[in-house]
Amino acid sequence: MDIKQVIDYVATNDISDLHLVAGSPIFIRKNGKMQPMGEPIPKEFIETSVAQMLSPIQMKILKAERQVDFIFSQGEHRLRGNAFFTNTGLSACFRVIMPSVPEFNTLGFPSFVEEILLSAKTGLVLVVGPTGQGKSSALASLLQARAKHTSQHILTVEDPIEYLIENNNSIVQQREIGRDVLDYEAGILGSLREDPDVLMIGEIRDRPTMASTLTLVETGHMVMGTLHTNTAVQTITRFLDSFTPEQRPQVRSQLASNLSMIVSQRLVPQSNGEGRVLAFEILTMNYAIANYIRQDKIFQIPNVMQTDSSGQMILFEQSLVGLVMSKQITNEVAYEYATDKNQLKALFELNNIS
Fold it and tell me: Of 50, 82, 97, at which residue does a domain stop?
């Protein structure tokens, strides 16, 4: 068995993830479910495979830090990899990257999301959700659309670079952590001198990155980024909780003034068992939400979203109900993925769903 054959198989069979663990079969993730494939593999197979994929610098990082992120290309296939050590020795996991950036209107979001985000010139846009739920695809799609329909300087800071975005009518420059820039904070602060119209931050993961993000967006730039949170409220709370109590009033003011939209997304199993479908939550900033952020009444935000009449707010449970009513997912799946099961139950009753 050769790792190149494994990658060809994975990349051409609608498989999202590949896991290599010494002493276990190769595991793949398809439609969100883990499945074993073949016989247990020896540690030598993993060591040889990883050595073929890493540059000398990446190999030094792996030995020194005991883990490393990387991108591996094989023909038209691209995979985001992570090699790391465990109790069984060297392991590796890979996320398959689609060969081209998908069109945003094919992802399943309401049309107003693209309309707002293509025309916006300033503000903070956050795309959130657990790992493997399509955040990178959504952001790359938005950036590709902006590059095509506008003439701008689009700058990204990523760890590592996943999708390669074409220039089209814009300049698109993608910087990779470790290769092109030291870390996210340095990349964000450096962008102040690089004249971007749009900056995309691959992952807003800690307080320095959050502080730098807020500094940049206050200068009138359009900033997009991802967080590993599940809902709009969790996202705002994560930002605030990352700062000291003394700093939070200023952060609340910055978020209230500069936050434009939070898009939360999950891929949930379809009722026909043939794949996954997008469920989402959309928060679009308005006066009421900004006021509740300033007043530290974040818990009131879901009420604003539920009663909003603009057509630009959608709670996650409302999205699930829509998928149930269109028979794309089952009631059971909706309950499994709901963040507020009591609210989902109430929406089911309101829509006569049994």
Answer: 97
Looking at the structure, tell me whether residues 177 and 68 fall in a common domain: no
Q: Is 13 exposed, middle or buried (0-12, 13-18, 19+ CB in 10 A)?
A: exposed
**Number of domains, the chain:** 2
Q: How far is Cα 51 from Cα 75, in angstroms, rounded to an integer?
A: 18
Burial of residue 189, with CB atoms counted within 10 A of its CB: 0-12 exposed, 13-18 middle, 19 or more buried: middle
* Contact between 145 and 198 (Cβ < 8 Å): no
Interatomic CA distance for residues 337 and 110, integer angstroms: 20
Query: For residues 33-66, b (16+ Cβ closer than 10 Å) or e, as one string?
Result: eeeeeeeebeeebbeebbeebbeeebbebbeeee
Q: What is the pLDDT of residues 86-131, one digit of tens each?
A: 999 999 999 999 888 999 999 999 999 999 999 999 999 999 999 8
Per-residue pLDDT tens digits for 192-210? 999 999 999 999 999 999 9
- Look at the pTM and tell me if it is higher than 0.85: yes
DSSP E strands in 75-221: the ranges are 77-86, 89-97, 123-128, 153-158, 171-176, 198-201
Domain CATH number, residue 33: 3.30.450.90
CB within 8 Å of 91: residues ≥ 6 apart: 19, 20, 21, 22, 46, 83, 84, 85
Which one, of 245, 236, 190, lies nearest residue 215 by Cα?
190
CA–CA separation, 323 and 277 (whole Å): 9
Torsion-angle region of residue 31: left (phi > 0), alpha (psi -120 to 50) or beta?
left
Q: Is 352 left (phi over 0), alpha (psi -120 to 50) or beta?
A: left
Domain with 259, as residue range(s), is: 104-314
